[in-house]
Design a protein that fits this description.
homodimer, 610 residues, alpha+beta, Aldehyde Ferredoxin Oxidoreductase,  A, domain 1, 3 domains, 6-stranded mixed β-sheet, 17 strands
Chain lengths: 610, 610
């Protein structure tokens, strides 16, 4: 075996020195890889405490031991660091082809420390690092930057870049790979973290292969699953995540009118997966190692020469669409492309636009802030104008660029009530009033309100989840059993983010014992499901400990007041409100935490985190 | 008729000018009197906004149209102003003999504006006002001050004074009447408000009678009730409020060990009403117009010459006793007398001691803060030493004197989690985990967490309350029906505080139609129960509007995290946690408020508050 998993390139921009760090195998086994191992790497490299925009805050990229192998849906990787948006743990995982290419270039991870004086980009080419001037790229959008890098370095490079929003330290700016196909790691403002280091992008190219102990066995095992697997994910393949818009609307899960409305059936039809498929879809997009192709490819809008670009996901349609009452698919394709090019998270962008629309409705802002922008509900052109201002930090956009909570505090009055966020980060497009467990998942997620940290709602209504002990279908409105479910689901999901592999594996039928087998074939670790879940619990608690060091306590396990106290009534969630405090009490107990939400010393000791 | 109800003496200490304001009859009918009319008076007299310790913040005292009449339990009055403790609406109602004497002196109310250069006291003697130097009284405790005033002015004066705590602007210092019998209007820090004006006390003496239209009819009507009334309140007469300690412990309503423990049966016996009656009670204390005598008179402790003094109430026993794990009745008699003399609220004092005990337990404070004070759980001597430091604002006591929230923020770390308060004011000794409706009552009370603003728990378990539409006995742990109940109960209780009459009238069987009859006999208003409840709703909403002007919104309708998320488990409340957010949503709707907790314009218009 040429090398083990865990080879991380550490680059310091202050002195442009770099070194390779081979993380010891035992630590890799304890933290797996991806977003899990990233927390360990962070803890080893970062001063304590480090401010989010301090040059010493490391920007971390990590793949997993199965990234780029024959394991199904294994083409993902994670970015991490202390979040400029929330001030707490920041991570964003994403698919595409960049992670696999990083491993082919000879590295499993990358950590960037310090700050460059001039704009630069990094080029990793088969084990070699170059730090190159990026003065000519600064100010370009993400598509243009990818194009320019490919022109310089050849078509085969994979790039991860930031847009103008990241350069301007917009708090909800992200990282973009796969060029015009725009795979986005956009939550937690890690685009601003890279921007603060004056790094426009990271190009990677390699001709090697990731280390594997039994590549043939792994390939065989994956192949054997294929038919059954793709059968189970047929709907996702056909409609992508936009296929969720209709079903989510029908059960009251889709945010509408800044989380105030329960029903929007005609609108949901106009922005749903069926509409997208029938009238706009050019082809599917597949990440590395993918056999599903949930990604949508559509024609470009902003540049008439652009033949193909990444289409909107469910989250984008929910946050920029229904939540802003924008019901035109062409308008949403345009807004999606705009955010991707400027380098913005579409979840926070949609939430900020809806927030500003409500500010205008309530008379808290007017012409003085908006100029000629006619920011009425459903006005897509106005949304576009506002998003441009945000990315460029011009006028009122400069204030919104600091995130929902920061902006609302400066607007004053009741504005914080209309900012549907916690920790300065927008709630994603699943409504805690539609499923009790989401309430708990949002509140206790390590990285701020996140729908995929627990993903528990996927199991709450229709299926059991025996892998984590959920043997009966639960009542989605009840509190009973939800804390157990969320704890279990968080472990499973943190594991997949650490692998870093696509969670749709779960819906394809991949169980943890099989993951253990793949890991053994890749690394030699003889891990079973129990050890994997324990690793996930370790990872979860390490992130909690990091957050606690930055001031997190029970008061931060919270939800916006609107979803706790406003009933939507007329929709599929009926008059349900999540019984939040009751579930949270259960949750602490199950986690072995104090009533203040701190891990007990014995819990940390059990997890080898003492 | 010599005069109407609504004659208020306005004193300005800046120029020592005074004038009489006869409030128009229509306004009196709309706001009744007491704590209700005080809000109207405040609105008329105070600049908007006014800081709590600004000389322009009026100190208001108001009786009701039945104060000092033959109406049962009518010997009460209210104090009010913007609270130095919470920064929001502040009021405290109390019994005793001061209010009746104020009316005999020819006034129904009093408002003090401005600030004196030198310490003074006010002397109202049969319509005449004197502002006298109080240099010789400054620094005396409340008992000594009362004694000195009686030596100067004669034994027949009734005094309302502050102690050293009020002089030192301790945020939970109160107002004390009836001398050694210590009737205390101690919540909301109105002692500090009077202290900030450099007023040590207000002595009143009068030989007149309150205006009444049909005194004989009123007397007859009250008399006719007597036998049945006193029969219903026999238990209260025999044991006073200390009789509640045992029953409250048994249902999980008594705070124990800073709200962490559910069961303390032996301790509760040692500090309960039976023990007090058998071994310490000298006689009962009756407020003016009282036929029950729930007040306890016991021997003095701190001064061996003191034959009689006011004994502890349930709240004192709960907050300084069980909540601090102090289970000695002699120790509690001593702590009660100490707080009364120093001029402190025993609810906040107990909460602050328990908070400090937990800080010590958790290692957040130690010898540097406490010196030689051995602040372990249950140590009454240490509690006494700490309370002395608070009243004198010495050492660590200076920090605690600013109130729970302010102190906790300065201690830092997790200290805010151990401060069981909202708006810098301690939760009183009834546990929201024992009855769901208390949760809502505490959170929405105009004056911060208050058990008597809704008093709904008195009806939640065992009785119906047809007067407010509660026709069935409700499940104390459920959320259903609780918002309706709390809204109705708040109206009834706000009415009694506006009358200002004792709420035990309810338990004696006095219904609102009878109150209307008494009011007609006193004032000529032909008011029925519906009009009285509408007045209460008007008063409730006026206070809400005042609070909103000072920044209150839905975020302020809250509870401490401990009572929302920590189960006591082993006690009478079992594993119950109040389903708070669900009830709050109902509550806003019933009140005709927006989802942000603001009264709708049409609600205000309906109540003639537009």
């Amino acid at each position: 075996m040429s090398r083990q998993f865990g080879k991380v390139l550490i680059v310091n921009l202050d002195d442009r020195a770099s070194r390779t760090w081979q993380i010891e195998d035992q630590k890799c086994r304890q933290f797996i890889g991806g977003a899990g191992l990233a927390a360990y790497v962070f803890q080893q490299l970062a001063p304590d405490p480090v401010a989010p925009l301090d040059p010493a805050n490391p920007f971390i990229a990590l793949t997993g031991p199965l990234t780029g192998t024959a394991a199904l849906l294994s083409g993902r990787h994670s970015f991490a660091g202390r979040s400029p948006q929330t001030g707490f743990w920041g991570e964003a995982s994403v698919g595409g082809h960049w992670g696999r290419e990083l491993r082919r270039a000879g590295f499993d991870g990358l950590a960037i420390l310090g700050r460059s004086e001039e704009p630069v980009y990094l080029y990793l080419n088969d084990g070699r690092l170059e730090i190159r001037n990026a003065g000519h790229l600064w100010g370009l959008d993400t598509f243009q930057t990818d194009q320019a890098l490919k022109a310089e370095l050849g078509d085969k490079v994979q790039t991860c870049v930031i847009g103008p929003a990241g350069e301007n330290l917009v708090k909800f700016s992200g990282l973009f790979t796969d060029g015009v196909h725009a795979r986005t790691a956009a939550r937690c403002g890690l685009g601003a973290l890279l921007g603060s280091k004056r790094v426009k992008g990271i190009a990677v190219r390699g001709t090697g292969e990731p280390p594997l102990r039994e590549p043939e066995a792994l390939k065989e095992s994956a192949k054997a699953l294929l038919a059954d697997f793709t059968g189970r994910l047929k709907g996702m393949s056909e409609f992508g995540t936009p296929g969720l818009v209709g079903p989510c609307e029908s059960i009251g899960d889709l945010p509408i009118n800044n989380w105030r409305q329960g029903r929007w059936t005609e609108g949901a039809k106009r922005i749903g997966g069926q509409e997208l498929k029938e009238n706009y879809l050019k082809k599917k997009f597949f990440c590395a190692g993918c056999v599903v192709g949930c990604g949508r490819t559509v024609a470009g809008v902003l540049d008439p020469l652009l033949q193909e670009t990444g289409g909107p996901e469910y989250e984008t349609l929910g946050m920029l669409g229904s939540n802003c009452l924008i019901d035109s698919m062409p308008a949403l394709l345009r807004l999606n492309e705009l955010c991707n090019r400027l380098g913005l998270d579409t979840i926070d962008a949609g939430a900020v636009v809806a927030f500003a629309m409500e500010l205008k409705e309530k008379g808290l802002i007017g012409p003085a802030e908006l100029g000629s922008i006619d920011l009425d509900w459903g006005n897509a052109k106005a949304a576009e104008e506002l998003i441009e201002l945000i990315a460029r930090r011009e006028g009122f956009g400069d204030l919104l660029a600091d995130g929902l909570e920061a902006a609302a505090e400066r607007v004053g009055g009741l504005a914080p009530e209309y900012a549907i966020q916690t920790h300065n980060m927008a709630l994603p497009a699943h409504d805690p009033r539609a499923y009790s467990s989401i309430a708990l998942g949002y509140a206790t997620s390590s990285r701020g309100p996140c729908h995929v940290n627990a993903f528990s709602h996927m199991f709450e209504r229709a299926t059991t989840f025996p892998e984590i002990g959920v043997e009966a279908v639960l009542d989605r409105f009840a509190s009973q059993g939800k804390a157990e479910m969320v704890v279990g689901a968080q472990h499973v999901m943190y594991l997949w983010d650490s692998l870093a592999m696509c969670k749709f594996n779960i819906f394809g039928g991949v169980r943890l014992h099989l993951v253990g087998q793949w890991l053994e074939q890749a690394t030699g670790w003889d891990v079973d499901a129990a050890e994997l879940l324990e690793a996930a619990e370790r990872i979860f608690n390490l992130k909690r400990v990091l957050n606690i060091g930055w001031g997190w306590s029970r008061k931060d396990d919270r939800l916006p007041l609107r979803v706790l106290t406003l009933r939507t009534n007329d929709g599929g969630a009926g008059d349900h409100l999540p019984p939040f405090n009751v579930m949270l009490a259960d949750y602490y107990k199950i986690r072995g935490w104090t009533e203040e939400g701190l891990p007990q010393p014995e819990t940390l000791k059990r997890l080898d985190l003492a």
